[in-house]
Amino acid sequence: MAVEKNIITRRDFVTTTAQASMAIALGLPLRLGPKTAEKTKSRVVLIRHADAVDADRKINAKIIADMLNEAVAVLQQQSEPLAAWRQLITATDIVGVKTNHWGPLPTPQELEQAIVEKLRQVGVAEKNISVRDQGIHLDEIFQHTTALINIRPMRTHHWAGVGGCLKNYILFSNSPSQHHPDTCASLGAVWQLPNLRQKTRVNILVLLTPLFHGIGPHHFDLKYTWAYRGLLVGNDPVAVDAVGLRIIEAHRLEYFGKRQPLWPPAKHIGLADTVYQVGNADLNNIELIKRGWAEGALI
Asked: Could you tell me if 121 and 82 are in contact, meaning their C-beta atoms sit under 8 angstroms apart?
């Protein structure tokens, strides 16, 4: 498949006063004064395949494994997926795969299995691999990890606006509830825990059938999901979430026929950049590389 590179610009995201107001509400950086020194851009790969999910929402395991491996290869600028994985993980690593098992929309087992298979091919011993969501503080592997892989589905969230790669690490905190106030504004602080960001080798945001609207805690309605059939992959969790949020907002506009901002606003993404300096939320500082199926990409 041909490679299409696109630098997402602020002009694309904020084209009207209303859109600018939305960006501020979401906590995304918005340049109002003189241009400051440019930051190093974060690379994010968006890969989609029309047959990744069928009409009955059944996942094609081979296709999504191929999507994941191609995205990692593109991210690491390697021609072969295994070479790319070997840049991220070594045979001697102890690897925790931080997944998400929220009942209505969990990380697909097919993706978890694809990751474990690549870890085996790299040479990581089975005894040094753990795939887990809850209970990571009691998991022997997670307590001794030298490398982490962060994977979860994208969805709207009653407390945080959206649940993405940033929020997926809240359970690494000894007191997750301390990050709930003010629409989970302090989620970026979790990523400042010792070595957590440094250990995280890749962030994978699953947008196969994302949830774009919710009403109340733990709400899920199939009608508020759609078959986007995509994955977002990057080294920077803030950039990955920022692109995912853009896609969610674009689909909400398409579905509702008018701008209907998320409530609560997902301001933790912008704050993870501007306050906690975890990564880039400013779309000017994100290099998006798109692969595969282009129809309905929304970005």
From this structure: yes
